[in-house]
Amino acid sequence: MKGIGGPGAARARKGFDWRRAVAGICLLAAALGCGAAQAEDGYELWLRYRPIEAARADGYRAFATQLLAGAATPTQAATREELQRGLRGLLGAAPPLAERVTRDGALVVGTPASSPTIAGLRLDTEGLGREGYLIRSVVVDGRKATVVAANDDAGALYGAFHFLRLLQTRQPLDRLDLREVPRLKLRVLNHWDNLDRHVERGYAGESIWDWHKLPDWRDPRYVDYARANASIGINGTVLNNVNSNALILTPMYLEKVKALADVFRPYGIRVYLSARFSAPREIGGLGTADPLDPRVRAWWKAKADEIYRHVPDFGGFLVKANSEGQPGPQDYGRSHADGANMLADAVAPHGGVVMWRAFVYSHETPDDRAKQAYAEFVPLDGRFRPNVMVQVKNGAIDFQPREPFHPLFGAMPKTPLMMEFQITKEYLGFATHLVYLGPLFEETLRADTKAKGEGSTVARVIDGSLHADTLQDPLTGMAGVANIGADRNWSGSHFDQANWYAYGRLAWNPDASSKAIAEDWVRMTFSNDPRFVAPAVGMMVASREAVVDYMTPLGLHHLMGRGHHYGPGPWVDGGPRADWTSVYYHRATREGIGFDRSASGSNAVAQYAPAVAAEFGDIARVPEPFLLWFHHVPWDHRMRSGRTLWHELVHRYTRGVDEVKKMRAAWDGLAPYVDAERHRQVAAFLAIQEKEAQWWRDASLAYWQSLNGRALPPGYAPPPKPLRYYQSLEFPYAPGNG
Amino acid sequence: MKGIGGPGAARARKGFDWRRAVAGICLLAAALGCGAAQAEDGYELWLRYRPIEAARADGYRAFATQLLAGAATPTQAATREELQRGLRGLLGAAPPLAERVTRDGALVVGTPASSPTIAGLRLDTEGLGREGYLIRSVVVDGRKATVVAANDDAGALYGAFHFLRLLQTRQPLDRLDLREVPRLKLRVLNHWDNLDRHVERGYAGESIWDWHKLPDWRDPRYVDYARANASIGINGTVLNNVNSNALILTPMYLEKVKALADVFRPYGIRVYLSARFSAPREIGGLGTADPLDPRVRAWWKAKADEIYRHVPDFGGFLVKANSEGQPGPQDYGRSHADGANMLADAVAPHGGVVMWRAFVYSHETPDDRAKQAYAEFVPLDGRFRPNVMVQVKNGAIDFQPREPFHPLFGAMPKTPLMMEFQITKEYLGFATHLVYLGPLFEETLRADTKAKGEGSTVARVIDGSLHADTLQDPLTGMAGVANIGADRNWSGSHFDQANWYAYGRLAWNPDASSKAIAEDWVRMTFSNDPRFVAPAVGMMVASREAVVDYMTPLGLHHLMGRGHHYGPGPWVDGGPRADWTSVYYHRATREGIGFDRSASGSNAVAQYAPAVAAEFGDIARVPEPFLLWFHHVPWDHRMRSGRTLWHELVHRYTRGVDEVKKMRAAWDGLAPYVDAERHRQVAAFLAIQEKEAQWWRDASLAYWQSLNGRALPPGYAPPPKPLRYYQSLEFPYAPGNG
């Protein structure tokens, strides 16, 4: 067959290489478009394994002439299966299995325990831990081979995915010398999934957990969930909403949890549960949930024991307590530490952990919302058990398009802090706006807390290195509020998959480049054609700033529609809490706008290290992206551009919309390089995004004008409708409402 | 290529037949299992179009050597596209398009208006109406051809699907002479979908209508929905729950409804909406919804006009009024006819209809629930506008596993009655129990009302022929409460798709054989291998009786868990209405069980024609399947089997469980003939069904024993747990709750 030959043909010394022939027929058939075209509906995420172009494939085949990979454990079997699936898709046929290297180009995968070949290589696997791996070009018995080696099956699984990624992204396979060790121990997803399958802040359909049919029916989709997560190193999943339902701790549900844990275990993923603090009362029949009450402590201990009987490697609990109406230790005059430690003691004998969320704000205290978590938690520094992590959102308000890093990072040197990012786009356009969050995650991770001088990045806080003197070998971790649902494409839109992907890659390596991650993702998910890759990556990296511009420019925040958080609502006022309104956060008047968090205002800046506080607190030094986060500023304030603040705001909103228009034009131009199915959907969503970006701009400007009485600068189109029109819009069934 | 040759080769007179070559490569590739195996996840329903085995395919190719099918209208384009898709999948390649017949074996599809060839044949298309079609083997210009002809594009579309079905079920294509005309005009689905995407009594995931992204994003799935429905002749869909939300009539939602209507129109499907009777108050700002109030009439007229501006072929309204808390004309002292006629007048100028549900029961009247619809509607016979249909459930209670036909059938000779079946298995095991409902639908349709002597079948009532003397050319129709949701397999389980399929086939021809329909479906959806077909069809046709046996034998009814309707609950008692309990319906005591609907009881039998009433009302003549529906019977009553009633009940429950065990064994044996993916899922669901059938049996028997104080007959295993255990089970998140 034409095109199948070259170096590989020479290797087929042992008679007719029928695998090569089959591979050839398969590739020919694919080229002819035989049968049903492989649907590009997004289901396969970044693990599409489409045939590699012939010349390249031939070259790669030389590095996968045979596969040495055991299947003695479930993880080994999963690893081997993934390699076979991937190589079959990419190269037309899976390499034959072998027990020993007998050809040049063998691929050897495993651990010293699983592979005599690897054991014999005596590789330098120290420091890889359980999850790290090497990928190296070696010589075995005089033959070239690629080895993917680890200390543990889990590391080999991660290494196998990495190897496949090299092919998916068309990297060279000769002279490999890669070494990867995850920087954080716990790399988890948080599903805000309710037991009725509603996903809070979910825009990708209902919960994928079909509780009614579990445990007897385990949807094969759960395996694909596990594969996708393993491919990006995610090793834990919290199954249920932080606004928790105690029923998940009852026997009926523990059977179902166990079934899920059994599916995930071979992929290195442990299951965790959100624990409702009042469970001892709600399902335990106790009259109290006081963490210092011996009956309560005994109840949780017994409950933990019961959970571990079902799931021996259960990860532990995630807890939202005394926040937004959730029960907690403060209901009994106890502290967060009291509550966390009680649960920690219950799971410690089993190796479990507690992730205790710092997203709290008092019922009563009218202090600046941005200050409250710090005020509650810093006094508790060092008071938590070693198996407790305090889980802190990236910023002090709530997952806005831009927030300065949370002041708790660097301020609790004796407590392991876990980063909480939001992958689902609650405040960033739901599923229809193309917003790549890699830059947002990266910005936070690289932010310098200056807690111990320059270079005290948030990444170094959460990886334990910054406070190594006060915390010995602490737990480390990152949590991501998942954007996963029952939609065919998992995440609500094709590009939203990239946020799940980037989150996993950054949890593995918090210093990775979000742009490089975007490129990997684009290559794996769409195409390696350079005419596609560069523009697509460009769209992605520009998208975060676009949404900041059209929703919440210059440090503005929390201006969305009430309840559902869909669309603009800078006028939102009234209701049970001031800090649930928009007016609380923008404080716009006839003379200016912005929240004074400097010393003349709430002094939230003082919660940062002095060098940072000095910068943020000084209107002349604060980075412009944070101007209105930290300062109340007159509309006439002169910006670095030379424009007044008012003019700059109008400029930014307008620029944001223009950026979306550019994204649309760019995407239109990419039609020749991508399947029609996905091109059409992305194009339709970009059209929605442009409409909604325009809406955000117009509604916001109409409102600011109603306060400042100012005209738009010349050259800017006024909002086409009056303010009351925008204020009248209602969306009673916008998805994901809490 | 081996296997590709024979008669077809001779026809390739005009040079190399590259299409045949491609087809051959494709079939070879499929045989080799190239690339990703086509997932058998159920998404394609019965329109899978998998390659036909080589010898057969070759024979078929002789009947599809070229395709004459216009594409001048959207329906023509949809028709052509479906034929190309189907033939490509089945035969390896779509036949080339042609304008004239130039080869033996041409396939000619269309109408006299769309096809000069068809016009020239001067076929006997009278009586086909708009939706009927012919499929006939003819000779055109001396060449053999198959013609699929109709008067209208819609008929040609239906004919095209029928033609494809012939191949899918391996029927011969020579000497075809088929003529099909639908017996009912309106063949609709009723989606009980809410605007928040919850599907009431839905077990297949959330609603497929993604309202939030409509109208700008029209999920390609909507096209596949339309194709599936068109393939079984369904020509209308009511988008929203009969427990209606007035918001669907507001401009924001009408834009979304229009978008859906635009997708469905080419497939011959019209959109309808459930109308909330109190909409004039809720969204119209009026102080009343009195159907006789001129302002209310004007509001509905204007609303109808508005709807028709969006959707010019809008079908009309479905209304649930004065039932289960829904608002209605009786709130104003008006009749159902007043209410229906007001709406009918609003839509009549546009050709619209009103389907007014007869599922009503009074707040106050303590009369037998089974009598209430008749009591309310018979006095209104003849009082409805011609464009009103009264929509009547198949039985007088609520979609139980078995109900005698509704007494309204045959009792309203001056009013068009529309049948309402339930396709979703609210009372039949949700998505996990394999229950083929074809026999249930068929039993009702073939039931003899004897309203005008023998042969006054329910089918003849609803097709208008029985009352042709009192109703001239009436509306006719059937409604099916859909089992469709966002699940990948649409219906919650693979075999549940068969119920959607059978419903459509029976709506087209109410006298069709449910067993023949099952065979078609099995062949199209799974396999034509006779080793598979016969056992699978056997399983299906036996399944309905099995569920009757293990849930509600011998005429028992309404014994399920409260609210969610999941699992057994014969003890359900108390609450706001007696007729929402189980005890109301079984009336079991120490001495007997069953609801006396004979003359000595509620006399519901008197609502039937005298011959039927005499049969049902006489304990010696009533068919045993209806015994406890119509009679209160002592436990010692001697059954036809010779057993006592108690013994017979125990026998039936146990037999039902045994039947499921047989189904499991049968399915296990079918593994070699079906893909592993679906085999595994069906097997897992059958295991769940066996567990739940056992549960129904055990819980029910434990309860009956607690009342009758009797032991089980010898040889029957007692319930393994005490009654209180079964009574204690709670399922707060069972799906589909209302």
UniProtKB/TrEMBL annotation, chains A, B:
It comes from the Bacteria. Residues 1-39 form the signal peptide. Pfam families: Glyco_hydro_67C, Glyco_hydro_67M, Glyco_hydro_67N. Transmembrane segments: none annotated. It catalyses: Hydrolysis of (1->2)-alpha-D-(4-O-methyl)glucuronosyl links in the main chain of hardwood xylans. Keywords: Carbohydrate metabolism, Glycosidase, Hydrolase, Polysaccharide degradation, Signal, Xylan degradation. One of its GO terms (molecular function) is xylan alpha-1,2-glucuronosidase activity. The active site is at 324 (proton donor), 398 (proton acceptor), 426 (proton acceptor). Residues 492-714 form the Glycosyl hydrolase family 67 C-terminal domain. Homodimer. Belongs to the glycosyl hydrolase 67 family. This is Xylan alpha-1,2-glucuronidase.
